[in-house]
Amino acid sequence: MHEPAAPTVTPVSEATVLDACGGRDLPRLGTVEQQWETDPIPEAAIPERAAAAVDALALDDVPDGGSVAVGVGSRGITNLPAIVAGVVGELDARGYEPFVVPAMGSHGGATAEGQRAKLEALGVTAERVGCPIRPTMETVTVGTTSERGIDVALDANAAAADAIVPINRVKQHTDFEGRVESGLSKMLVIGLGKQRGAKTAHEWAIDWSFRRMIPEIASLIVEEAPVVGGVALVEDQRDDTAVVEGVPPSGFLDREAELLETARELLPTLPFDDVDVLVVDRMGKDISGSGMDTNVIGRRVYGLNEPPPERPDIKRIYVRTLTEPSHGNAAALGLADFVGADLLADLDLSKTVINGLTASTPRGMRVPPPVETDRAGLVAALSTVGVTPTEELRVLRITDTMRLERVYASGALVAEARERDDLRVVSEPEPVDFDDDGSFAAPSPVDPEH
């Protein structure tokens, strides 16, 4: 029987886009900066703060020399290697035997070595943090929920340890709103549940919302597994570390809920609520579980009985590239309206589909129309927002949804910024400049390393 050739997707050429859209004038872009007052923890003090967080953990019943599974996820958390090293170093100094377990659900292609590679891409290696890394996709059942009879899965290496300590950033989740969202509890339920636990949680979320599921399953895990607490992190608007805190098992969910309110106050947002076209220089799993923070762009790809955020209102989104630490996983790519050729080239459809199937999100696996150049992407997006005079178009270009302090903005938005105390006009609008290959000549508005 004849085997059909594997299908290929070729970006639409710039010439085709320009012919289809006609002579579209492009708005001029200036630079606008958000005025934030932050008080981050000095980088040099991070390891000490992380070590001090161990004081809050319930370690009294852990035997001398006992093993401690330190859960570490796949998100792009600032200072993550230093924080993990600080916690590991303190546990070691107290006579325990810590080891790191990847706590990232199905990420890394749902393989043990893929998850080890994800941690390495984030700088979390055995040499850097000072302890072994033990990845596995094997799980054990630690209990069954009382209301719905769901078997709760937990990483087998973590379940066999004398103690479990998740380390995670507390922040708003991209898919739902609840008392606890993304943080320690979610890491226990989905991250340490590996592919099996993550798939179960996302399947049930359609009928049993995350806002109810995560607290119930997390409480069960804290009760039935050797969870001695966790280390919670909160980042400020510049993605610098603002909080490193040990959270004991008693009051686990209550304290996380309080830290979530702090995180809400510090969440960076777009400086404007009404946008015709948003250009995103990069998306990725190290930026958000959905590649782009849905709380920032106002779109939810999952739609599991959860309405999208009321603001902002963005008509079109063009995404240029995928981050290297994503390892080809462009989960929730369907949030975009157009994507660049570089992103398409880096896309690993298998990893993306595995993530999407685990999360029960077929919309997230959809590949938007790919375009050959940035010029084609901008023109295509602008040509599908309706009839608006060029000088009135509201266009933003950002580095990613984590780094929003400085953005490129069209003339209409720059004029608005001049009237606001929370914004500063850094540069006046100028014509958009492209390189010979059609790429934006100007660099990202914010240096990723800020």
Q: Count every beta strand, where a strand is a DSSP E run of 2 or more residues.
A: 15
- Overall structural class, as computed from helix and strand content, comes to alpha/beta
Going across the major beta sheet, what is the strand order? 12-11-10-9-13-14-1-15
Beta-strand content bin: 15-25%
Tally of contiguous helical segments:
15
Biggest sheet overview: 8 strands, mixed
Q: Helix coverage percent of residues?
A: 25-40%
Mean pLDDT: 91
> What characteristic shape results from the CA principal axes?
globular
- Give the C-alpha Rg: 23 Å
- Termini separation comes to 56 Å
Low-confidence stretches: none
Secondary-structure element order, as H and E? HEHEHEHHEEHEHHHEEHEHEEHHEHEEHE
What can be said about this structure in brief?
This is DUF362 domain-containing protein. It comes from Halobium salinum. This protein has 450 residues and is an alpha/beta fold.
Explain what you see.
There is one protein chain. The chain is an alpha/beta fold. The protein is 30% helix and 20% strand. It is built from 15 helices and 15 strands. The strands form 3 sheets. It has an 8-stranded mixed sheet. Strands 3-2-6-7-8 form a 5-stranded mixed sheet, sandwiched between helices. Helix 11 links the parallel strand 9 and strand 10. Helix 7 crosses helix 9. The model has no long low-confidence stretch (mean pLDDT 91).
